[in-house]
Write a structure and sequence with these properties.
CATH class of the largest domain: Alpha Beta
Largest sheet: 5 strands, mixed
Shape: globular
Order of helices and strands: EHEHEHHEEEEHEEEEHEHHH
Number of strands: 12
Number of helices: 9
Radius of gyration: 20 Å
Structural class: alpha+beta
Distance between the termini: 42 Å
Mean pLDDT: 91
Helix content: 25-40%
CATH superfamily of the largest domain: CofE-like
CATH architecture of the largest domain: 2-Layer Sandwich
Length: 269
Amino acid sequence: MPQPLTVIPVSAPVQDQPFDLIATLERSLEALISLADGDVVAISSKYASIAGNRIIDLADVQPTREAQELAERYKTDAAMAQLVIDEADHIFGGIELGFLLTTKGGVLSPNAGLDRSNIPSGKAVLLPEAPYALAETIRQALQKRYDCRIGVILTDSWLMPGRYGTTGVAIAMAGFQPIKDERGKRDLFGNPMAVTQVGVADSLAVCAQVVMGERDEATPFAVVRGADIELTDAPLSADVVSIPWRHCIYIESLTLGMIPVDAAAGAIS
């Protein structure tokens, strides 16, 4: 029987300069809740980036010719285009609203996760450097402080393909298995599950994002309690959660798997 899930928002001071993330997190938790075995602590990746001095002054960026061409084509700022080139693992293309579709650390995202919100004007925040190592460092510190076994997620928001609105995504995680493999198990009617793997970390990131907010809530942390997670001390990486492109219905279908625009209706029915 599934158990109830509780998501507790944890506020913290607004920051726009580097700071001690773990000390701030511990102070914020102490004012509200004591961690217990099985809890999952969600941390805003942007808050973590600011702590780690991943802040860029756009005036200091020198755009290359490639960046200038991307900026002109997709109606974006040339400095932002240069940062995307520098940060993205791959750039697929873009739209004329100032966004480039990229992959970064195994996550399909606009502009390689770069963000200009909730930071002073004229600056941008990059995603955390070595996010999986950071999640593990935070986990170890909290487990020592509270004498318990927990999970940690660095969360961000992303766009669901074909839908309005942002939702949560796990940029990195530590301490629990991020994927629950249901393949080979039986459904309600005894049918074998063929492809289903549950994105546990991303699902918990969505839960956390609901209470953490996107605007001026000043709630960069959340504690998810009661989740059915499998705790682990094994090191995690993007390879654990990232699907090969040839198996990704979005990437494969919109690149190599595209139906030709002049294909006859009978050919696709």
